[in-house]
Amino acid sequence: MTFYLTANLFPFTFTRMMGIGAVHPVIKQLNTMGVGVQDNGELCLQTAQCKSKCCHRDSGVSLARCAPRAAEYQKCSPLHLTGVYYFCQCESGLTCDVDRTIVGTVTNTDFGFCKDPNDVAI
């Protein structure tokens, strides 16, 4: 049994397709996306779909879009299993300096800042 998101009176209602109604345009786009092909600003379901390797959302109810990775001193998220981030992972060569906790890992709220691992603290 397959469920689709339909564009009817309430656009975010799950209904079983019986040849009636249309598939919501957002879901239609998400269903056709491949791996590593989405440009920044395009909709995504997980990081693997983005050329930048970051699928980012502003809040728990916003649509996720591909975004650039975080630069040095910008806020970042460590690697998560969900593949969708509130803050992108760091650019190549940088590390996300974060104090990981079990709660933060489960709720995707453990954030840090990108830093160069070769920088020496004085």
Topology:
Elements: E1 3-5, E2 14-16, H1 25-31, E3 55-56, E4 65-66, E5 75-76, E6 95-97, H2 102-107, E7 112-115
Antiparallel strand pairs: 1-2, 3-4, 5-7, 6-7
Walkthrough of the structure:
By secondary structure, the protein is α+β, with helices and mostly antiparallel strands. The chain has two domains: 1-32, no CATH class; 35-122, Lipase, subunit A (Ribbon), CATH 2.10.80.10. 11% of the residues lie in helices and 16% in strands. A three-stranded antiparallel sheet has the order 5-7-6, with no helix packed on it. It has a two-stranded antiparallel sheet with strand order 1-2. Strands 3-4 form a two-stranded antiparallel ribbon. The N and C termini lie far apart (61 Å). Forms a 1:1 stoichiometric complex with pancreatic lipase. InterPro entries: CLPS_chr (IPR047576), Colipase (IPR001981), Colipase_C (IPR017914), Colipase_N (IPR017913).
